[in-house]
Amino acid sequence: MTTQQLRPIVSVFPIKGKVKTIKQVPLPSVFSAPIRPDVVRFVHTNMAKNNRQAHAVSTTAGEQTSATSWGTGRAVARIPRVKGSGTGRSGQAAFGNMCRGGRMYAPKKVWRKWHRKINTNQKRYAVCSAIAATAVTPLVMSRGHRVNKLPELPLVVSDQLQSLTKTRQAVKFLKFIGAYRDVEKVIRTKKTRVGQGKYRNRRHVLRKGPMVVYARNLGIKKAFRNIPGVETASVYTLNLLKLAPGSQMGRFIIWTESAFKLLEDIYGSWEKPSKFKSGFYLPRPVMVNTDVERIIKSDQVQTVLRNRRPRSRKYGKKIQRADPYEDMSVMVKLNPYYKTKLQKQKELEEKNKKERKEIVDKSRKEYEDWLYFSEEEEEEEEEEEEEGSDEDREIEVLSDEN
Amino acid sequence: MSKQVPETIKKQKKRSFNSKEVKQEKNEKRMKLLKEIQEKAYKRAEKYEKEYLDQEQKLKELKQKALKEGSFYREPEPKLAFIIRIRGIVGVPPKPRKILQLLRLRRIYSGVFIRLNKSSLRMLHFIDPYVTWGYPDVETVRALIYKRGHARVNHQRKIIDSNEMIYDKLQKYDIVCMEDLVHEIYTVGKNFKHANSFLWAFKLKPPVGGFSTVKKSFVNKGEHGNREQYINTLVKKMI
Predict the structure, then answer these.
(1) Pairing between strand A23-26 and A9-13?
(2) pLDDT of the residue at A385
(3) Is B59 on the interface with A (CB under 8 A)?
(4) Which of A176, A302, A383, B87 gives the lowest tally of CB atoms within 10 Å of its CB?
(5) What is this model's ipTM?
(6) What's the CATH number where B116 sits?
């Protein structure tokens, strides 16, 4: 919203001849007003209540009896009952909303609040939104208008349109400009109203066709009056109920050139107030740049963000591992020294084994030597037994053992 | 027709700390670190093996020396105990219940290491009927930590599957590998508290061969209370 705003250009088309641009006009600021369906819905629902006529139930309905309750003890409900006798009506229940011929619950009164006050600024906001929406092709299409064959949206035509007087001319123009398809839709879908409105002077239901907005009525009103679905409106008095029928934005509007230009004066802009609505500036959007994705991805934002915290996938999943006392690879991963330790233990064991073996062998050898020796000595003894005493020999043998 | 890459994606890639180059760099750093950790682990394991053997040897020598002199060698009082909760959670009075909670013995057959000092001995006194405890030796400590050791990581219980896990949490206490952890626990070092709280309470299995009677104390041919060195055989049955 700079002070010097570049406004886009819209083509102005003639009303007959060839469909080509005869002039170009800048797009009024209204068409850049924020499109707020919530505001439009609120204003529309309340505005639509304003053309209601009061209705109520008769004040005396159901009360025109002198019924009294019979009280208890008569084996009947305690509801007031019609007095008297000699007629079917006597003894019947009366007055209650549950009774046949009784008064309704909470009888409707004419002093019900039929109309709604809406803040002027809200009303204007809604109208600005609705006008802005008429330039958005997807919105117009989604509202149901047949706008495929139009040369441009918003559709602006020369002021000569305002001077048309004959319906034939008007239809010819609509066909020329490509808007007649919308009218055809209206004609095709004219139906008898569903419900009781059909015998309350609201027999037929029509779709909404194009709306023709003019600056000066030089016959245009009467020219378009009889074409089904087509409505005309003065640009000075644009009605939200017509711009967004059913609070659905995106009415198909055909602007005349002067009407189109007047929009800038009627609704003003963000810098200049409206000339016709005192103190009114166009509503400001909450966000200037609504492309949130773009904002987030922009350099200005991304460079200031902290780094994304890394998901600790290391410890994220449930880790399974084998028992290190059964699986050597797991053991070695946890204790790289383990294999060496086992080796060393093994070596130590073998060393001990060897030493033990040596000691055992040594003592065994000694024992065997002694045994061998003693065998020899015994033989010698046996030989010498005949000769001498054994006592000395035995002592000798003992000393050897030691 | 070449693939058109949107401007925003190009910028994102350049900016992203997840880009290929950054990832590669990180990976290399990590690999280097892992290698360092494993080397340290090797050296320290070697050192500790020697230390444990020396300790044993020293103890033997002192005992022999004392015997020779005709006196006794009084061994230093144990610094480390392993407690196993052997009673369930039903019908526990408030004081023992609170103490069991404080010691992280919240379920039956859960086990924790605890350093023994006057305060903790007092605590153990209160919970004697609900636990059995004793003085674990190196092999028991090792078996517990290797086989049933789970770390408390991000408020989660994760099995210790690599030294990296230990390094990440306990590097500032100079504990980088399993053997470091075992050593810190067994010798009740300066950072015993941190090493112990790194470990989730051990969840053991009911003992193979069963208990005699948990209602009686160990001294009275039951199971609860202090069973000194016989905790080692029990842990073997429960691990």
Answers:
(1) antiparallel
(2) 60
(3) no
(4) A383
(5) 0.86
(6) 3.30.1390.20
